[in-house]
Amino acid sequence: MEYTLPRGTQDILPEEIDYWNFVEKTAKSIFALYNFNEIRTPIFESANLFNRVISESDIVKKEMYTFLDKGNRELALRPEGTAPVARAYITNNLHRVNQHQKLFYQGPMFRYERPQAGRYRQFHQIGVESIGSDHPFSDAEVITMSYRLFKALGLKNIKIYINSVGSDTCRPVIEARIKQFLASNLSQLSENLQEKFKNNPLKMLDSKDEKLQTYLAGLPDMREALSQESKDHFNFVISYLDHLNIPFEYKPTLVRGLDYYTETVFEVVSEDLGAQNSICGGGRYNNLIKTLGGKHTPSVGFAFGMERLIMLLKKQNITLPTPPKLVYVAALGKEYQMEAILIAEQLRKTGLLTSMDYTKLDFNAHIKTAQKISASHIIIIGENEYETKTLSVKDLKTRSQVSVPFNDITSYFQSLTETINV
Ligand code: HAM
Question: In what helix (H) or strand (E) does residue 383 lie, and over which residues does it extend?
Answer without folding.
Answer: helix 383-388
